[in-house]
Design goal:
0% strand, 198 residues, mainly alpha, 2 domains, 4 helices
């Protein structure tokens, strides 16, 4: 329950004190002293009332400032709360986006790992096939001699010459062997021409 402060009119208390002092000067004895005491008490009470009124106004101003500060603080708190909520929402969105990105990244990584494993398996198969081909070529090279084509043609001519020479002498077996050698060279040259065309 708040008290209502009514300011005292300054003139009324000072007029009363003046009146009491004048009366005390006119009255002698105990009555005069009582009038002077009453005047001092009125002055003291007036002083205290003025001090109380001043304090009341100061407290009223401080209370008004406190209410204004509290309201400003509440507004700032509400603003901060809405900003925090917005930041939480943004953070949740960012986390969801990061999680989706992570899932996409993991899926892409899984695909790349699968492709890499397939490539490694394919490379392994090709390496095994290459090793097999090298072994075949090596074993083929062990049984084959490389001869220039001109040498084969020269040998073919010599087989023809030998075959004709053996035919004149009547050596049919040597003639047949010479012709077989010539046919073998012809077959090798034919295979070479067919390989060159393809």
């Amino acid at each position: 329950m708040s008290a209502t402060v009514v300011p005292l009119p300054p003139s009324s208390s000072s007029e009363t004190v003046d009146f009491l002092r004048r009366m005390a000067s006119m009255v002698s004895g105990q009555n005069g002293q009582m009038l002077l005491r009453a005047a001092r008490q009125i002055e003291s009470l007036t002083q205290r009332a003025m001090t109380a009124e001043r304090l009341y106004h100061q407290q009223l101003e401080e209370s008004t400032r406190s209410v204004e500060l509290r309201e400003a603080s509440e507004r700032a708190s509400e603003t901060m709360a809405s900003q925090i909520e917005a930041l939480r929402s943004q953070l949740a969105d960012a986390n969801a986006a990061a999680a989706a990105e992570r899932v996409g990244f993991d899926a892409e990584r899984g695909k790349l790992i699968g492709l890499m494993q397939d490539a490694e398996s394919h490379i392994g198969s090709l390496t095994a096939e290459l090793d097999s081909l090298r072994a075949s070529v090596d074993s083929f090279n062990d049984t084959v001699v490389s001869v220039p084509i001109e040498m084969l043609r020269l040998a073919r001519t010599q087989f023809d010459f030998l075959s004709a020479s053996f035919a004149r002498k009547g050596d049919v077996i040597s003639q047949a062997m010479s012709e077989i050698g010539g046919f073998a060279i012809d077959e090798a040259l034919t295979v070479k021409k067919t390989a060159d065309k393809s």
